[in-house]
Design goal:
About 55% of the residues lie in helices and about 10% in strands. With about 400 residues, the protein is α/β, with parallel strands linked by helices. It has helices spanning about 1-10, 35-45, 65-85, 105-115, 125-135, 150-160, 160-170, 195-200, 215-225, 235-245, 250-270, 275-295, 300-315, 320-335, 345-355, 380-395, and strands spanning about 55-60, 90-95, 145-150, 175-185, 205-210, 320, 360-365, 370-375. Helix 4 runs parallel beside helix 5 (about 125-135), helix 11 packs across helix 12 and helix 13 crosses helix 14. It is built from 16 helices and eight strands. It folds into three domains: about 35-205, P-loop containing nucleotide triphosphate hydrolases (Rossmann fold, 3-Layer(aba) Sandwich); about 210-295, Helicase, Ruva Protein, domain 3, CATH 1.10.8; about 300-395, Winged helix-like DNA-binding domain superfamily/Winged helix DNA-binding domain (Arc Repressor Mutant, subunit A, Orthogonal Bundle).
Length: about 400
DNA sequence: CGAGATTCATGTGAAGTATACCTTTAGGCTTAA
DNA sequence: AAGCCTAAAGGTATACTTCACATGAATCTCGTA
């Protein structure tokens, strides 16, 4: 054991600074987004004069740099603010996180917690929580910029009334000022909003177009310079990562992750260079971990339903229907001593699993033979097998 | 043969229920003057 | 008399159930050519 660690220590790493490639890293130079950054900066600048800045709505596909740009700007603005003793506060919330900010109550509770007020998970009336949040907000003169990431998820689950309430809070605040930045991956999201919400939320709008392959390459080169030691990357590695990511609507986050994981794989193998086939391995690994992770954090019932789907797909059938799943699921529940949910609920569970991208579900009509969800597994065989193992363990299936 | 009607299996919306948790309040007990 | 603790009462959010109705194309029915 000691020998292993000794060797680990002396073996030199491919990385110079790994965190440069990690998802939450904010670089101090963002390429190919000069215009967007300037626009955002213009919108937010009034906050420094203690004026309310316009609400801002940012949209663009995943990995187009929305979050990074916003974080970059807010970091800068915070710096200036603290230097000049301006009471500016930035709150960032990701609305997608299940059980954190995916309902009205939980979002406001989360916000209140950000302001140092502990809110129980249940029990309080929602408007009470609003009041607590409100008084925390208005307790002193300050400007607050509230960033709601993945706001489309929130509106989809919790309705847009909550957004209306938030945009209206400002009118009642006496001392503080609140501006909202909404970030959405869904390009048509605003169009489905209540017009009142729409007009107040998107006083300013900025669209982030996808990066093209060349731009992603630039970004990768820039980061790789900091992240890796010289010559750690083989010929064409960056190009390939960029190409893969460009294929997926120019997702830079994905490209970076691909590069990092590929390097980790190479390093673990004790190689001194990352080569092209590591990228393929990395892609596989990322996909696997994304799914395994998502599944692991699901409630037991969800896992049981998913397991049923997997088991049924095993029988070499390309399409599975809700009814079969429910039957299997019920007998499964019997076996593992789980109280079965109703079909109604399972229907919703399946819809949610679809949303998570773990399965593909499509509602079809089979004419005379009724209407159902047609379900397919979207992942590769290998991952499916791993999943089954994991679920068997989690559900204690012998 | 083709237009409508029918049918099936389940999707989907609304309303109700169970659970877990919160605050408030009233009563009982302890404590200190 | 004041202070503290506990338990009951009254209230809420959330996950789930119950009930009832909606869907939509394959299939059936029946009038017509």
């Amino acid at each position: 054991m000691t020998a292993f660690f000794e060797k680990f220590l002396t073996k030199d790493s491919l990385f110079l600074d790994k965190k440069v490639l990690q998802a939450n890293y904010t670089p101090n130079k963002i390429l190919h987004r000069e215009q967007e950054i300037e626009q955002i900066a213009h919108v937010l600048a009034p906050a420094l004069r203690m004026e309310k800045s316009s609400n801002l709505f940012i949209y663009g596909k995943t990995g187009t740099g929305k979050t990074v740009c916003v974080k970059y700007i807010t970091n800068n603005i915070l710096e200036v603010a603290s230097k000049n003793r301006i009471p500016l506060r930035i709150v960032y919330i990701n609305c997608k996180l299940k059980r954190v900010a995916d309902t009205e109550y939980r979002l406001i509770a989360q916000l209140a917690t950000e302001f140092g007020k502990a809110i129980p998970a249940t029990g309080l009336p929602t408007d009470e929580v609003y009041k607590i949040f409100f008084s925390a907000l208005d307790s002193k003169e300050q400007v607050i910029i509230l960033i709601l990431d993945e706001i489309d998820q929130l509106a989809k689950k919790a309705g847009d009334a909550i957004l209306y309430n938030l945009t209206r809070i400002n009118e009642e605040l006496k001392k503080a000022q609140l501006s909202i930045i909404g970030i959405s991956n869904d390009l048509v999201f605003v169009d489905n909003l209540d017009p009142r919400v729409k007009s107040s939320l998107s006083e300013e709008e900025i669209l982030f177009p996808p990066y093209n392959a060349l731009q992603i390459q630039d970004i990768l080169y820039e980061r790789a310079k900091r992240a890796f030691k010289k010559d750690a990357l083989g010929e064409g590695v960056i190009e390939k990562c960029a190409a893969y990511a460009a294929r997926e609507h120019g997702d830079a986050r994905r490209a970076l992750e691909l590069l990092r994981v590929a390097a980790e794989i190479a390093e673990r193998k004790g190689l001194s260079k990352v080569s092209l086939n590591h990228i393929d391995e990395a892609e596989e690994k990322i996909e696997r971990e994304r799914i395994l992770d998502a599944v692991q954090t699901q409630p037991k019932q969800f896992q049981a339903v998913l397991y049923s789907v997997l088991k049924l797909s095993e029988k070499n059938k390309p399409l599975i229907f809700t009814g079969e799943i429910y039957d299997f699921y019920k007998s499964l529940c019997d076996k593992i001593n789980l109280r079965p949910l109703t079909q109604r609920r399972v229907s919703d569970v399946l819809a949610e699993l679809d949303m998570l991208g773990i399965i593909n579900a499509k509602v079809i009509s089979k004419g005379r033979y009724g209407r159902t969800r047609e379900i397919t597994i979207s992942t590769s065989h290998e991952i499916t097998n791993k999943l089954k193992e994991l679920l068997e363990k989690a559900l204690e299936i012998s």
